Amino acid sequence: MQHPILNIKSEEPISIALAIYNGAKYLKELLSSLENQTVKPLELVVVDDCSSDDSIKIVQDFPLSFEKKVCSNEKNMGPVYTFKKLAELCSGNFIAFCDQDDIWLPQKLEHSLQAIKEISDDIPGIIFSDLSVIDENGKPIHESYWKVRHVTPDRFSFVDILFSNIITGCTVMINKAMIGEFLKMPSNVMMHDHWLALIGYSFGKYSFINEPTVLFRSHGNSVTSKSKVTTLQVFLNDFKNRDQYLQKNIQQAIEFKNLYFSKLSNRDAKTITQFIKLQQKPFFYKRLRKDSRSLFRRLS
User: How far is CA 114 from each of CA 97, 215, 219, rounded to the nearest angstrom?
Assistant: First the structure.
């Protein structure tokens, strides 16, 4: 069944936030997929992180049936800064984050909007979904990214997110309450989608769409390569970098605790406190806690 393209500009304004950096090769495909959404957004907001190719010109010249805002960083700042800047520039009640080399399936905005409207407006809410994986030429590789990476969002909890993120930013839509929290994000977090996941899985609320909404472009078949890495190979790599093992996660947890400790439930407050204490523990202790998170939950 073909769905009509709805214009929701006056009622449910959605901003699409697109960060670009030397993305000229695939931008036209992405922009076409944004234009073909069954729900029209209010605007596309683009921040260029100092590209040296024709990325900005492609975006500026591409005809869209909705408003377009384009600006550039004065110097290369990386994704965390750029996505936060995007959020500051967006005027919609909802923001859908976007990557320059993917392709959105036609009902991505429609399905995301339906899901996020189930979350109360005064609770920081996040919607995310599965992805289908394509190669550099757009050829299908995997129907489900989650199946390849063994992702089961409904089985994850706050402690799991402290150890590792499962939310892929290019599938995300957030509501106005979450936008307010996102703008408080420190500059030294691991990634913007990981920070959103910490909020969603603690004092906020999350929901997920158990089907792909995006064709995720895997360069060099990295998704397949990662899925074939053995447990031993992962352990050996972690051991090689044992001095830094989990340090970025712990630093991010410290920032999160400093900002949000009073908003956490008693259980989550105990969990993040115990997680931060891992900073002074030896590598094998940290590795054991990551591999046996059910035990970690009981200890907290």
Answer: 16, 20, 31
